[in-house]
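TASK: fixed-backbone design
INPUT:
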């Protein structure tokens, strides 16, 4: 493993990887023990068998650096607050239009366009829907 750090043996937990005799081994059990001289020892048992490793509790053990958290990505969703989307319609010739409305009723806006076209002869219209978006963090999606 390219990125390593040293950790005190007493902090090793089940599931950790440790570097032992040139290879990475997964710890499947950890227990505390005492040396005959009275000092504390940590006994590491490894997945896949083999002899347990007994080390002084304050001994530094090589472990891989934790993986950095995966970057968050972003999804954009319509804002569900009390601010409804606003619909605007305007004539592309003269810029006239009805008052912006929160109404979703397309027929009302089309009726205004028809009446305006009949009255002025203008036939081009711009319809806009202006709404708020909210960015929501999504785990594991690159941004």
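OUTPUT:
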């Amino acid at each position: 493993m390219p990125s390593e750090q040293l950790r005190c043996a007493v902090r090793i937990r089940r599931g950790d990887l440790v570097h032992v005799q040139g290879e990475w081994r997964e710890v499947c059990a950890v227990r505390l023990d005492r040396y005959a001289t009275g000092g504390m020892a940590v006994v590491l048992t490894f997945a896949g068998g083999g002899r347990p490793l007994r080390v002084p509790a304050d001994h530094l053990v090589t472990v891989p650096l934790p993986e950095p958290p995966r970057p968050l990505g972003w999804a954009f969703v319509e804002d569900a607050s009390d601010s409804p989307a606003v619909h605007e319609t305007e004539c592309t010739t003269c810029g006239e239009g009805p008052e912006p409305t929160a109404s979703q009723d397309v027929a009302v806006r089309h009726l205004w366009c028809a009446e305006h076209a009949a009255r002025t002869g203008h036939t081009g219209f711009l319809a806009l829907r202006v709404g708020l978006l909210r960015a929501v963090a999504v785990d594991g999606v690159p941004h």
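COMMENT: Helices lie at 106-120.
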